[in-house]
Amino acid sequence: MDRFAPLRHRTIALVGLMGVGKSSVGRRLANALELPFRDADAEIEAAAGRSIPDIFADLGEPAFREGERRVIARLLDQPAHVLATGGGAFMNPETRALIKARAVSVWLKADLEILARRVGRKDSRPLLKGRDPLAVLQDQAELRYPAYAEADVIVETGDAAHHVTVDQVIRALSAYLQEQAP
Ligand code: S3P
Fold this sequence. Notes:
This protein is of the alpha/beta class. It is built from eight helices and five strands, in the order βαβαααβαβααβα. Helix 1 crosses helix 8, helix 2 packs across helix 4 and helix 3 packs across helix 4. The structure holds shikimate-3-phosphate.
C-alpha cells in the first residue's frame, strides 16, 4: 500500500511567517508526495504581470492583498496540490475559511531569530524594506500567531535542513489524517 495515498486527497496549504521555508519546503514536499506544487506569491506575480515589490510600490498593499485573496481562492479550486501561501494570506478571514474548507493547513513555525537571520539575507520583501527584520517579525508574530494557531497541524522546524522538515511535515500530516479518519 502506498503510505502517501491518504496525503493526496486534499490540498496541503503551508502557512507561517516569512522565511520559515513555505516555498522551499513546499516544493520538496510536493516532490516527495508526487503532487503538483503552487506558490501563491509566484501566482500573484504572474497574474499582476509584475514582482511583489512592484505590486506594493505601484498599487499598494491593499491591492496586493486583494490579488492574494483571489489567487488563493482560484488555486483552492484546483485538484489536490501543495500550496505555499504568503505570510499574510492566512490573516484574511475569507482565505482562512476557504483553506479550512478545502485544504489541510500546516503552520511551519521557527524561532524569530532564525527567521530574522534568513530574511535579512534577501531584499525581496517589501514589508522589511528599511526595517529591522526581527522587529517586523516580532510584530507580525504577535498579530498572526493566533490565526496561524488555527491550522490543522503545527510543525516546529527549528533550523533543520529542508528535507528534515519535509519528513516532519509528512509524519505530522499522516498522524492528523489518521486521527480524522472515520
Ligand atoms: C508577506 C509575505 C511574503 C509576500 C509579501 C507579504 C507577509 O511571502 O506574500 O511580501 O505579509 O508576510 P513569504 O511569506 O513567502 O515571504
